[in-house]
Design goal:
alpha/beta; D-Maltodextrin-Binding Protein, domain 2; Double Stranded RNA Binding Domain; 5-stranded mixed beta sheet; globular
């Protein structure tokens, strides 16, 4: 049970969230974790939700999903914001902090549709995704595939599949699980489709101030944090930040911590067409997560011939 300040009896803690069904479900996970603290969810439509005719990279990057939430947080419209960790840029807005990273859900990608593996897809199959990482990985393994742009919320994407616009689509297993959707999908092997940095994890962002309410929000949020997941995403985001903090370069990063505090980080960079790919791993102590992420990024850059490889 979360301990909370009597301040929240006077005014409930306000959680800012994107307005999509998945984002609201994720905000409810946080709200439930904060119980019995009184919580209300403020839903906001972001630019990333409105621009659907081009890839996120071309529209302005992953920050389009969180800028409105950060602005609401800094204005005082909300006390905290809930994000999918993979949607967050490697730098936070001034005046904010990452208050907690929740225990991680399944980090794998899902092949949604009637097929169990990428090998099962027929030659020239049309597969929908908006992710430059997923596109590059699909083409790396199956250059014959026809990769089509697929934006919108999860239900919109599934509807496009059911309407016959695609033979299969790629979504995150965690999102499907959180929505409880009854659709056919197969989790893809991490050896084939390594995830984006932070995939499967939820983050709580708060104001970084020392007034009583801000401090109470940070304390309540911290109670939901998972040290293991925090260490993993710290390494992954360090790798991402060293390489390219935007979403223009296909980058995969997946860290796991074992029971002995050892961290194992798998990283991969690809050309946009998937023809060139460099993958490596590094092991060390979880306490050195940031240094390990940066070191692996340097290894990948060295293998790729330098920073000019990045899109």
């Amino acid at each position: 049970m979360t301990r909370y300040s009597p301040l929240f009896d006077q005014q409930p803690l306000i959680l800012a969230s994107r307005a999509s069904a998945l984002a609201i479900a994720q905000a409810r996970i946080v709200a439930d974790g904060l119980a019995p603290l009184p919580v209300e969810v403020l839903s906001l439509t972001t630019k990333g939700d409105k621009i659907l005719d081009r890839s996120l990279a071309d529209a302005g990057g992953k920050g389009l999903f969180i800028k409105e939430l950060e602005s609401g947080l800094l204005r005082g419209d909300a006390d905290a914001a809930v994000h999918s960790m993979k949607d967050m840029e490697t730098t936070l807005a001034d005046g904010t902090r990452l208050a907690a990273v929740l225990p991680r859900d399944d980090r794998r990608d899902a092949l949604v549709g009637p097929f169990q593996t990428l090998e099962d897809l027929p030659s020239g199959a049309r597969v929908g995704t908006a992710s430059v990482r997923r596109r590059a990985l699909l083409l790396h393994h199956r250059p014959d595939l026809d990769i089509g742009l697929l934006r919108g919320n999860v239900n919109t994407r599934i509807a496009a599949l059911q309407d016959g616009q695609f033979d299969a689509i790629i979504l995150a297993v965690a999102g499907l699980r959180r929505l409880g959707l009854d659709v056919d999908y197969a989790p893809l092997d991490l050896a084939v489709m390594p995830p984006s940095a932070g995939q499967g994890a939820l983050a709580i962002q708060t104001r970084d101030r020392d007034d009583p309410r801000s401090l109470a929000v940070m304390a309540a949020s911290a109670d939901l944090g998972c040290a293991k997941t925090t260490t993993e995403v710290t390494a992954e985001r360090a790798l991402l930040g060293r390489l390219d903090g935007s979403c223009h370069t296909p980058i995969a990063a997946s860290a796991t911590c074992d029971e002995n505090g050892r961290l194992h980080l798998d990283g991969m960079i690809l050309s946009e067409d998937g023809r060139q790919a460099f993958r490596d791993r590094i092991d060390g102590f979880g306490s050195d997560a940031t240094q390990l992420g940066e070191a692996l990024a340097d290894q990948l850059l060295g293998a790729a011939g330098g920073r000019h490889f990045l899109a």
